[in-house]
Inverse folding.
C-alpha cells in the first residue's frame, strides 16, 4: 500500500502507455453519480498529444465541482474555528425559566461552538487585535438555541442601523484594499472618534482582552439583556456569561505580531491540540438575573449594549458547564456551514428591546441565505435540530427531507399520516406579552446618553500593567492614523474617560493634549471599581494547559530534560523541545532525542515559558544564530519565565539576558528546581521585569 506523501509510480506518468490502475485495496473512487472511475490521472484525449474530449464526464464533473467549491465567507467573523461538546446543567432553575436544558440537574445538551475574529478575512492571522466571536449552538430538546456572543461584554454601537458603517470602517479601506484584520487605520478611528458611544468598547478592545492567548483562555458574553420566562409566564432579565475553567490569559502585543507571522493558525491549532490531547476545555455558564425594579434603579439602561452590569452589583450565578471535547470531522461542512442566529430561542428565553439585538434578529437569517444559498440550510447536519422537526415549509434548493403525506397546508381535514403537524399552544414558543406604546420616532433614549462613565470604571479597574498595555495599544493604533485630526479627536474623547489616560496616549504620540470634547451626558468618575473586569486579577492558579518550549542541543543534560518533562506532566502542561535542527539531538547520555521543532521555525512566542538547556558547546553555536538569540530576548521582553542550565551562558550573553537577571530568570540545578520552576510559571508572566512594553 502506498504511504501518505508517496506516489504509486505505476499511476503517475505512464510513459505513453494506456493507463492500468492497480486494483485498489481501499474504497473505489467514483463520480458523484456513483460510477467507478478508471483513471484519475489523465483526461480523455485523442491520441497521446491530441485535444481533450468534452465527453469526458468524469473530468467535467470534477472541474465543475471544484469551480464551485467556495461559498461567500461571512461578512464579519469570517475567520473562525469550531468544536463540538456538551452543556451539562449543574443547577436546575425552573423557578426562573422553562428553558428545556435547565429543568433538571445533570441534563446534557449537545453543543457546537464557533470562535472567531471579526474584522479579518477567512485567511487572516488568528492573533489580530480584535473582538472574538463566541457563538454557541445548543441543540436542546425544545429546538436550537443560539447564544451568539463575543469575548467582550459590550459592543461598539447602540443601534443596529450603524452596524454596516462600523464594519465598513474597520475592514480594509475601499480605495486601497488594506489593512487586513487590523483596526489600526484611519477609517476605523475616524468612525470611532465620531461615535462616542463606542468609547467603552474601545477601552476593552485596546486592552489585552483583544489579544487572547487562546480561545480556551477567554470569557464569553451574551452581551444583550435577554429574558427568562418560567412556566407561569413570570419573566426576569438575564445576561449570559461563559467563564473559562482554564482561567484568563492574553499575550502581549509584540508577541501577537510575531505569533501571526510564526503561526497564523495559533488559536485554531491550540484548540485542536488541546481537544485531541484529551485536555477538553470547559466554561461555566453563569447568569446575572435581575428584575424590572433593579433595571429601573440601575445607573444605566439595561437595553444599552454599550454597558455592563458589574458582577459586584448582580453576581454571576453558575448554572451549567460547557465542555468542548470533539473536533470537527470536516471544517467546511461544520465550522463553515454552521449558521448561528440570535433569533434561535426556545420557550423560556425571550428577547429584550435592546435595539442592537432587535436589529440582529433581523440580520442573521438574511446572511445565512446569502452564504449557504438555500432556505434549507437548517437541514445541514451541523444546523439540524436534534429534536423532531415538522412543518409545512416545502421544496426550495437542495431539499433533502422527504416530507410525506397528502396535505402540505393547514387547516386541512385529512387524518393520520396525511394530516401533518399542528401548532401546540401549550408547548409552543409564546412571546412574553408586553405593553408597548409611544410615537414612532427615530430617536435614542436619554438613558443611553452616558458614553464615558463605564469606560472610566473599566480603566480604573485595571492593574497598572494592564493600564500600561491599554496606553500602548491606543498609542500604536492612533499612531497608524495618518490624519492628525482623527488622533486629536480621539484624544479629546479620551479626556472624558480619564485625563491621565489621555495624557499618556498624547505623550506616546508626541502630541499636545487637546480640549475635552463635549459629552452628551456628564461623565462620572466615581463608579466603584470592579475586579471582574481585569484579566490579571482573574488569572489562572496553575500552569495546566500551558506550554513550555525547551531549547536543547547535542550534549544537553539528559537528566535535566527528564526532570523538566516530569514536572510539566505533573502540572498538566506540555513540553515541546526545540533543537538547532528538526532532525533531533544526541543527549549527554548518548541517547537520541527527537525534537518537536527546529529553532528557526519555533520562536519563543509560541510558548508560555521557556527553558534554555543547551550544552556549553551547543550554546556557543546557537549564540551565532539570530533565531536562537531572539528566542531568548523575546521571551525576556515578553515577561516570560525563563529557566536555564549552566550550559546556556554563552547564548544568554549573546542575547543580552543575564542569568539571574531578575526573579523570572531561574537557574535549574536539580530535579526539584524543575518542579519549582513549573510552579512559578503558574503566574504566567514576570510583570515586575524592568522593561517597557
Ligand atoms: Fe453579529 C456574525 C456576534 C452585532 C450581524 N455576530 C456574528 C458572529 C458572532 C456575532 C459571534 C459569528 C457567528 C459564527 O461564528 O458563525 N454580532 C455579534 C455580537 C454583536 C453583534 C456579540 C453585538 C452585541 N451582528 C451584530 C449586528 C448585526 C450583526 C448589530 C447586524 C445588524 N453578525 C451579523 C451577521 C453575521 C454575524 C451579518 C455574519 C455571519 C453570520 O452572521 O452568520 O448576520
Amino acid at each position: 500500500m502506498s504511504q501518505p506523501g508517496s506516489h504509486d509510480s505505476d499511476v503517475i506518468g505512464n510513459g505513453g502507455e494506456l493507463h492500468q490502475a492497480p486494483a485498489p485495496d481501499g474504497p473505489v473512487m467514483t463520480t458523484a453519480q456513483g460510477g467507478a472511475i478508471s483513471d484519475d490521472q489523465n483526461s480523455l484525449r485523442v491520441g497521446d498529444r491530441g485535444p481533450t474530449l468534452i465527453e469526458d464526464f468524469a473530468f467535467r464533473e470534477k472541474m465543475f465541482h471544484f469551480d464551485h467549491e467556495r461559498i461567500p465567507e461571512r461578512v464579519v467573523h469570517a475567520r473562525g474555528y469550531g468544536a463540538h461538546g456538551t452543556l451539562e446543567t449543574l443547577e436546575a432553575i425552573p423557578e426562573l425559566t422553562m428553558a428545556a436544558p435547565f429543568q433538571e440537574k445533570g441534563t446534557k445538551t449537545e453543543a457546537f461552538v464557533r470562535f472567531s475574529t471579526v474584522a479579518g478575512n477567512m485567511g487572516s492571522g488568528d492573533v489580530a487585535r480584535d473582538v472574538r466571536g463566541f457563538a454557541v449552538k445548543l441543540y436542546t430538546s425544545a429546538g436550537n438555541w443560539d447564544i451568539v456572543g463575543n469575548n467582550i461584554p459590550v459592543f461598539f454601537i447602540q443601534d443596529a442601523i450603524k452596524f454596516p458603517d462600523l464594519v465598513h470602517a474597520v475592514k480594509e479601506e475601499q480605495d486601497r484594499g488594506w489593512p487586513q484584520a487590523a483596526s489600526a487605520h484611519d477609517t476605523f478611528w475616524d468612525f470611532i472618534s465620531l461615535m462616542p458611544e463606542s468609547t467603552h468598547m474601545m477601552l476593552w478592545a485596546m486592552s489585552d482582552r483583544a489579544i487572547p492567548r487562546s480561545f480556551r483562555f477567554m470569557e464569553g458574553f451574551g452581551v444583550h439583556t435577554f429574558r427568562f420566562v418560567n412556566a407561569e409566564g413570570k419573566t426576569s432579565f438575564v445576561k449570559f456569561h461563559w467563564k473559562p475553567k482554564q482561567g484568563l490569559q492574553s499575550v502581549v502585543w509584540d508577541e501577537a505580531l510575531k505569533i501571526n507571522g510564526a503561526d497564523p493558525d495559533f488559536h485554531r491549532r491550540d484548540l485542536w491540540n488541546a481537544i485531541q490531547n484529551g485536555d477538553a476545555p470547559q466554561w461555566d455558564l453563569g447568569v446575572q438575573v435581575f428584575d424590572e425594579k433593579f433595571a429601573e434603579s440601575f445607573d444605566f439602561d439595561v437595553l444599552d449594549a454599550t454597558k455592563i452590569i458589574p458582577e459586584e452589583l448582580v453576581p454571576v450565578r453558575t448554572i451549567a458547564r460547557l465542555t468542548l471535547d470533539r473536533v470537527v470531522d470536516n471544517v467546511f461542512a461544520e465550522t463553515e456551514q454552521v449558521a448561528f442566529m440570535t433569533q434561535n430561542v426556545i420557550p423560556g428565553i425571550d428577547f429584550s428591546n435592546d435595539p442592537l439585538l432587535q436589529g440582529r434578529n433581523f440580520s442573521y437569517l438574511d446572511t445565512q441565505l446569502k452564504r449557504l444559498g438555500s432556505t434549507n440550510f437548517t437541514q445541514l447536519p451541523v444546523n439540524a435540530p436534534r429534536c423532531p422537526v415538522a412543518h409545512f415549509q416545502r421544496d426550495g434548493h437542495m431539499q433533502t427531507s422527504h416530507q410525506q403525506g397528502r396535505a402540505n397546508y393547514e387547516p386541512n381535514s385529512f387524518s393520520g399520516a396525511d394530516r401533518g403537524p399542528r401548532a401546540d399552544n401549550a408547548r409552543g414558543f409564546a412571546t412574553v406579552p408586553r405593553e408597548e406604546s409611544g410615537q414612532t420616532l427615530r430617536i435614542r433614549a436619554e438613558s443611553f446618553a452616558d458614553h464615558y462613565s463605564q469606560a472610566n470604571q473599566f480603566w480604573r479597574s485595571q492593574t497598572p500593567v494592564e493600564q500600561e498595555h491599554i496606553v500602548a495599544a491606543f498609542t500604536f493604533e492612533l499612531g497608524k492614523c495618518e490624519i492628525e485630526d482623527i488622533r486629536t479627536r480621539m484624544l479629546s474623547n479620551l479626556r472624558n474617560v480619564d485625563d491621565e489616560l489621555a495624557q499618556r496616549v498624547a505623550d506616546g504620540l508626541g502630541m499636545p493634549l487637546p480640549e475635552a470634547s463635549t459629552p452628551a451626558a456628564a461623565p462620572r468618575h466615581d463608579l466603584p471599581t470592579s475586579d471582574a473586569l481585569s484579566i490579571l486579577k482573574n488569572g489562572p492558579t496553575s500552569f495546566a494547559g500551558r506550554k513550555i518550549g525547551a531549547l536543547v542541543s547535542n550534549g544537553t543534560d539528559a537528566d535535566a530534560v527528564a526532570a523538566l518533562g516530569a514536572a510539566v506532566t505533573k502540572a498538566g502542561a506540555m513540553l515541546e523541545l526545540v533543537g538547532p535542527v528538526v532532525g533531533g539531538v544526541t543527549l549527554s547520555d548518548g541517547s537520541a532525542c527527537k525534537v518537536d521543532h527546529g529553532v528557526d521555525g519555533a520562536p519563543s512566542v509560541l510558548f508560555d515559558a521557556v527553558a534554555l538547556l543547551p550544552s556549553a558547546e551547543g550554546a556557543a553555536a546557537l549564540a551565532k544564530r539570530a533565531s536562537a538569540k531572539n528566542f531568548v530576548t523575546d521571551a525576556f521582553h515578553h515577561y516570560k519565565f525563563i529557566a536555564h542550565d549552566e550550559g546556556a551562558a554563552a547564548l544568554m550573553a549573546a542575547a543580552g539576558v543575564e542569568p539571574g537577571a531578575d526573579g523570572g530568570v531561574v537557574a535549574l540545578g536539580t530535579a526539584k528546581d524543575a518542579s519549582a520552576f513549573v510552579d512559578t510559571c503558574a503566574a504566567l508572566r514576570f510583570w515586575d521585569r524592568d522593561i517597557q512594553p
Notes: Residues 74-77, 80, 114, 116, 133, 135, 148-150, 155, 160, 163, 223, 305, 338, 340, 356, 359-360, 363-364, 367 surround HDD (CB under 6 Å).
